Amino acid sequence: MKLFLDTASVSEIRRMWDVGILDGVTTNPSLVAKEGRLFEEVLREICALGVPSVSAEVVATETPGMLSEGRRLRALDPAIYVKVPMTPAGLKATKVLASEGTRVNMTLVFSATQALLAAKVGAAYVSPFIGRLDDQSQVGMDLIREIVPIYRNYGFKTEVLVASVRHPIHVLEAAKAGADIATMPFSVMEKLVQHPLTDLGLARFLKDWEKVPKG
After folding, report:
1. pLDDT tens digits for range 23-73
2. What are the helix (H) ranges across the chain?
3. DSSP conformation class of 174
4. What are phi and psi of 108, to 5 degrees?
């Protein structure tokens, strides 16, 4: 399973990129606003790191605007995937953009039928928001367990990108369910590598090593 960072912080992206575990980045208008920088400037800087997949979201709500924004974003760098919302206008825009060779990440997906439609219009990624479903007293991961077999049944090439990830258990469950990608905040990705027994074990090894005769 590929691991993406859900951020617009270039420093966070660079840290995980240097570790070697990062496969891509997802952004959205809220994340970019936190950085207080020009949207396209941030995208170019992220792409310059060599990240192979960078999702950038349109803000238009009608198809013509989505197409205009999507084409402009796609022209910035070959790594750009255009995020389009799951709406009738978004489905129409996705079909057109996909036919032009633009890779679309269909976002704000909350049902398996929405995911089915996203695949039918040629989305490269579909982004189910599991954490937001959890917030509504639904089991968000159940949606991933529905989408994955549907896509396999019909040979859809659309990849399942699990979004709104809140903690490492979401990542673990997404991997077990067969999702292609999980995107998460920096804090969650940090926790994937952490375990108290690892820290204790390392401390014990180093302490024992001090007792070994040197020279």
Report:
1. 999 998 889 888 888 889 999 999 999 999 999 999 999 999 999 999 999
2. 10-19, 29-35, 39-48, 63-76, 88-99, 112-120, 130-135, 140-154, 168-177, 186-193, 196-211
3. H
4. 60, 45
pLDDT of the residue at 58: 97
Average pLDDT of the chain to the nearest whole number:
95
Tokens of 60: 């238009």
What are the residue boundaries of the structural domains of the chain, listed by start?
Answer: 2-211
Please list the active-site residues: 83
CA atoms within 13 A on the CB side of 136: 8
In single-letter form, the type of residue at position 157 comes to: K
The rounded Cα 174 to chain-centroid distance in angstroms is: 12
* Matching residue, tokens 């903690």: 167
Q: What is the mean pLDDT of residues 1-15?
A: 96
Residue 132 binned pLDDT confidence (cut-offs 50, 70, 90)? very high
Nearest CA among 37, 35, 77 for reference residue 54: 77
CATH class of segment(s) 2-211: alpha beta
Q: Under the phi-then-psi rule, with left for phi > 0, alpha for psi from -120 to 50, and beta for the rest, what region is 50?
A: left
Q: What is the dihedral of CA 168, 173, 176, 182, to 10 degrees?
A: -60
Reported for 208-211, long-range contacts at CB under 8 A and 24+ positions apart, including other chains, are none
In this model, does residue 5 exceed pLDDT 80?
yes
SS3 33: helix
